[in-house]
Amino acid sequence: MSGSAQCPHLDFQFNVKVARIEDDTIKQADITGKCMNCDQPLVFRCDLPMGVSWTHPTLSVDAQELRLPVLVLGDEVDEKKKRPSFSVREIR
């Protein structure tokens, strides 16, 4: 089935990829989703900044990927460690 207008969007598939920096305890879970019937991607509707951060949740520019920093229970984070990040600011 193709065409979003004809699909009731009742079944979904989510994918979680985990990104990590070598020799670091903090990870990032990148979550995407789509309708299993028509393959239309899901868009995350939340008021989060666009970009990548290892300290707070972010969205991809197209809002189709939710990025969440995660840590294994019991691991500690070295807050002084420099980690790559970026943000995108929308100009209207």
Spatial order of the strands forming the largest sheet? 1-2-5-4
User: Tell me about the biggest sheet?
Assistant: 4 strands, antiparallel
| SS-derived structural category | mainly beta
Number of alpha- plus pi-helical segments: 0
Mean pLDDT: 87
**What's the shape?**
flat
Rg, nearest Å: 16 Å
Measure the end-to-end span. 36 Å
Assembly state of the chains shown: single chain
Summarize it.
With 92 residues, the chain is mostly beta strands.
Keywords, separated by commas or semicolons:
92 residues; flat; 0% helix
Question: Which SSEs are present, and which pair or pack?
Answer:
Blueprint: E1 12-20, E2 27-35, E3 50-52, E4 58-59, E5 66-70, E6 86-88
Antiparallel strand pairs: 1-2, 2-5, 3-6, 4-5
Report what the structure shows.
The chain has 92 residues and is mainly beta. The chain has one domain. Helices cover 0% and strands 34% of the residues. The chain is built from no helices and six strands. The strands form two sheets. It has a four-stranded antiparallel sheet, with no helix packed on it. Strands 3-6 form a two-stranded antiparallel ribbon.
